[in-house]
Write a structure and sequence with these properties.
With 469 residues, the protein is of the alpha/beta class. α1 crosses α2 and α10 packs parallel to α11. The protein is globular.
Length: 469
């Protein structure tokens, strides 16, 4: 079974992530490209540092080559945003990245990008799944070296082009004048080379932890969160850095530690950057967030006479709404964001450089900027919980929550309820609580945002007990 979720197809290595399934997916996409008449340009492909990522890219490439479609392979482990950038810049109809992003090390997967460097939306991925189901015969594939000899496989390494595009968009001169000290934690992933080059070009002092190649990610989840960045926090405080920057396994998500050692929630990062782009850079336009992301963005948008748009989880929804509304920035509470004028998907490297620019341009420490925002818009607390379940439990919860649309007796006055993506309850006090099934892992996620931490915890516990979790 090859099923796409909110972040591409992801599966356990050796279970569903197998050579046969990888080549079946490649055959399906190749057939789709032929039917659409977009084979002339070819396809660009990249891979991260996960186990079997490079081999999986090559297994897919030989299928495209056998189908007469040229495959351009980025021949070193690279960030996902590099592949998206290259698809956009060189007008490829499709791109492919071998990665399971922030999933546990036992997973790998494939992200598919469409014209313009966008994440394939649900219509595109549904079509790919239909092409997969139509494949009845074993997939044929030539040898990798044969593909290279015939000119149907070409190895490239366009990192400089991607890096130059970021430096052209960032105020490098402002950063050069500050002598900022930056700590990096690529979490054994693929961001270190790109970030180090850009930061050192801007005359920053840079030190890195967890930069070696480790397919087990040091035994931790390669997701930059409060639970996984304790070492970076200590590193920043002990050595007096201005900022600590972490990225997930494929560098499309970001985690940040401020100069006091505090972990900044991705919600705070989004608010900071939207505020900075509007107030200091003079940009104008709305903001886009998903249903599990802070409503403080709505307050910032209102202050600048703009609108905040809410979409379902999945970055393809954010990029589509940004394209429709010409939004300044779009992002999600899991750490992914993008900015107008850059690529159409998440880029942790670009986001990191924008934060460094913000510190340089404002002349304030990161903790001071965070305090200014809190003073202006008030403090909020986000409570996040995840639960595993059996197939029977999933069916029961789905029936209760989404089919019968039952709700618990919540301790706050309800304003409205949305079933746009899972179940989200909006309270009259401005807070909210949501429950939805993850599109990337077998988890149920409950999120709640309230002014007070105890209220957020209380709402989550009520939902948890109601659903029997």
């Amino acid at each position: 079974m090859i099923k796409f979720g909110t972040g591409g197809w992801r599966a356990i290595i050796g279970d569903d992530f197998t050579k046969q399934n990888i080549q079946t997916l490649a055959k399906a996409l190749a057939t789709k490209m032929k039917d659409e008449g977009v084979t002339e340009k070819g396809i660009v492909m990249g891979y991260d540092r996960r186990f079997l990522s490079k081999e999986a890219m090559q297994w897919a490439a030989v299928v495209f080559a056998t189908e007469g479609i040229k495959a351009y392979l980025i021949n070193k482990s690279s960030p996902t945003p590099l592949v998206m950038f290259y698809v956009m810049k060189h007008e490829f109809p499709y791109g492919m990245m071998i990665t399971a992003s922030h999933n546990p090390a036992i997973y790998n997967g494939i992200k598919v990008f469409t014209a313009g460097g966008r994440d394939a939306d649900e219509f595109q991925t549904k079509e790919i799944e239909e092409y997969i189901q139509a494949i009845k015969e074993p997939v044929e594939a030539m040898e990798y070296e044969e593909g290279k000899e015939k000119g149907l496989i070409e190895e490239i390494y366009p990192l400089n082009e991607y890096i130059d595009s970021i430096m052209a968009e960032i105020n490098m001169e402002a950063i050069r004048s500050t002598g900022l000290r930056v700590a990096l934690d690529p979490m054994y992933g693929v961001s270190e080379t790109s970030l180090r080059i850009i930061l050192q070009t801007a005359r920053c002092e840079v030190e890195t932890i967890h930069d070696r190649h480790d397919t087990l990610f040091g035994g931790k989840l390669p997701s930059p969160s409060a639970a996984t960045l304790h070492q970076l926090q200590n590193f920043v405080v002990d050595r007096g850095f201005d900022i600590g920057i972490a990225t997930d396994g494929d560098a499309d998500r970001i985690g940040v530690i401020d100069d006091t050692g505090k972990f900044l929630h991705p919600n705070e990062i989004l608010v900071l950057l939207y505020y900075y782009l509007e107030k200091y850079k003079g940009w104008h336009g709305p903001v886009v967030r998903n249903i599990c992301t802070t409503c403080v963005l709505d307050k910032v948008a209102e202050e600048f006479g703009e609108k905040c748009y809410e979409v379902p989880v999945g970055f393809k929804h954010i990029s589509a709404k940004m394209n429709e509304t010409d939004a300044v920035i779009g992002g999600e509470s899991s750490g992914g964001l993008t900015v107008r004028g850059h690529i159409k998907g998440k880029d942790g490297i670009y986001a990191a450089m924008l934060l460094v620019e913000m510190i340089a341009v404002t002349g304030k420490s990161l903790s001071e900027i965070v305090k200014d925002i809190e003073d202006q818009y008030g403090e909020t607390h986000m409570e996040e919980r995840s639960y595993r379940f059996t197939a029977e439990e999933k069916a029961r919860i789905h029936r209760m929550l989404l089919e019968e649309q039952k709700l618990p007796q919540l301790p706050f006055e309800v304003s409205r309820v949305s079933y746009q993506d899972g179940c989200k309850v909006y309270f009259k006090n401005g807070g909210w609580v949501s429950a939805r099934f993850s599109g990337t892992e077998p988890l149920l996620r409950i999120f709640c945002e309230m002014e007070k931490e105890e209220d957020a915890v209380r709402a989550c516990v009520v939902f948890e007990r109601f659903l029997g979790l």
